[in-house]
Design a protein that fits this description.
This protein is an all-alpha fold. It is 72% helix and 0% strand.
């Protein structure tokens, strides 16, 4: 346009006709590749969910440690208080859980295992925001009551629920990989062990492991791990174990540790899977009285805890002390197994990862008595990995957790040897894997009415 309003004929003018077809194509391109496209909403859901998982895991860790310290102070100050607090706490938590969110019972990992097969139904039935909040609060409550529970299993269910929530808010279709990524990121953030999150997803959560699942899992784990590492620092749960084992020592110690731990862990898993049937047969009074049953289990935990003074809570501090060379009573491993079993079959929320590692350290202390001239810390770790593998039958996850939590990379070969032997031994005692067996009731709950069982 020239001064005076005259047009400049030397500048060519291009008129682009805007047709309905052009508008439709533009809308399709915007929908597929614009900021509101599904691919970007999915990436945002994964990223925001992973950050939230890291923060939730750190908060649960902090509050869990506070609860353990407060209960320990109470138990040391008033020795008879656990006789009241623990059974009544178990009963109260069981009653509250059944009233508010029955889907939060137990570890939380079986719920996620079941959810992977029915993602749409599980999103509201097992992995709702209410379930996550209830699981979080009641796990802390269980530790306040002195229960022998871990926070890793609950973190898996909470993390999967967080990932589901973000995908719902952003209207992203629900897929099994979402729940696998959330649960695996929870393990990584809870233990501060990213590689263990990947192996956990492979061994426990994903029956058919696909490439896109691997990408989602590793993305979520990376983000959640960075949040946990950035806020909490590069900490090792059980301290640094720099010992190594020569091949001859490994050939002598690892098979004994594998058989011993595999038998003990397999017996624990078998008791977990079959105890309800035995209870209904031998103790019919408790069949339809879950609160009374939780009270009875709380009495067992209280009596054992008061008599030993060592079996309360997650058992992290006891395990770390044993690894660092503190002499542990020979009965610590069996006593921790008993309190963990009593807590788990009570039905109250809480995991078994940390208590199983602690019980494994107790069994490792027995092995240290058998092999007094071999590296003590290394022998303890072999006992831990063998017992933990015997319980959950996930040898790769067990080894990676121990290696990452103790910086014991020089023991990878002995640990794998013990874990594989423990895995084979445990199968002889308990045919079914623990978490998959515990997932059966949740599968039934998610199965549509009239569906034929697989």
């Amino acid at each position: 346009m020239l001064p005076g309003g005259m047009e400049d004929d030397s500048v060519p003018r291009i008129d682009i006709p805007i047709t309905a077809r052009t508008v439709r194509r533009a809308r399709i391109l915007l929908r597929r590749h614009g900021p509101t496209a599904l691919v970007w909403r999915r990436r945002l859901a994964i990223g925001a969910g992973a950050v939230s998982i890291g923060l939730a895991a750190l908060l649960l860790t902090h509050l869990a440690n506070q609860a353990i310290d407060i209960f320990a102070h109470w138990a040391d100050t008033v020795w008879w208080l656990p006789f009241l607090l623990t059974p009544l706490g178990f009963a109260g938590i069981a009653a509250l859980m059944r009233r508010i969110a029955p889907e939060t019972s137990g570890s939380g990992i079986p719920q996620v295992v079941a959810a992977v097969h029915e993602p749409d139904r599980a999103a509201s039935a097992l992995l709702s925001p209410k379930a996550a909040i209830t699981k979080f609060a009641l796990t802390i409550g269980a530790l306040f009551a002195g229960a022998s529970v871990g926070r890793e299993g609950p973190t898996v269910q909470i993390s999967a629920a967080i990932m589901v929530l973000y995908h719902r808010l952003l209207h992203v279709p629900m897929r099994p990989s979402i729940m696998i990524a959330g649960g695996a990121a929870g393990v990584a953030a809870a233990f501060n062990t990213p590689l263990a999150g990947v192996t956990f997803a492979i061994e426990e959560l994903a029956d058919a492991y696909e490439q896109r699942v691997a990408l989602l899992v590793m993305t979520a784990i990376l983000i959640a791990g960075m949040v946990s590492l950035g806020l909490a620092g590069d900490y090792l749960y059980f301290g640094v174990v720099g010992e190594t084992m020569k091949l001859g020592v490994t050939a002598r110690v690892a098979p004994v540790a594998g058989v011993f731990g595999g038998l003990a862990g397999g017996l624990f898993a078998r008791a977990m899977l079959s105890f309800a049937d035995y209870r209904d047969r031998w103790l019919p009074f408790f069949r339809n009285r879950p609160v009374a049953w939780a009270l009875a289990c709380g009495i067992v935990v209280a009596v054992t805890g008061v008599l030993t003074g060592l079996t309360w809570g997650t058992g992290y501090s006891a395990a770390r002390a044993i690894i660092n060379g503190t002499s542990a009573p020979y009965w610590y491993g069996p006593a921790k197994l008993l309190t963990t079993l009593a807590t788990s079959i009570s039905g109250i929320p809480g995991g078994i990862f940390a208590p199983s590692l602690s019980a494994g350290a107790g069994f490792g202390a027995i092995l240290r008595l058998i092999f007094p001239n071999d590296p003590g810390g290394a022998v303890i770790l072999l006992g831990m990995v063998a017992y933990f593998t015997g319980v959950v039958r996930a040898p790769l996850t067990a080894v990676i957790i121990i290696v990452e939590a103790t910086a014991s990379r020089g023991l990878i070969l002995p640990l794998f040897t013990a874990a594989l032997i423990a895995h084979a031994t445990s199968r002889l005692v308990c045919k079914e894997r623990l978490y998959h067996g515990l997932a059966h009731p949740w599968h039934e709950r998610l199965r549509p009415a009239g569906a034929i069982p697989a």
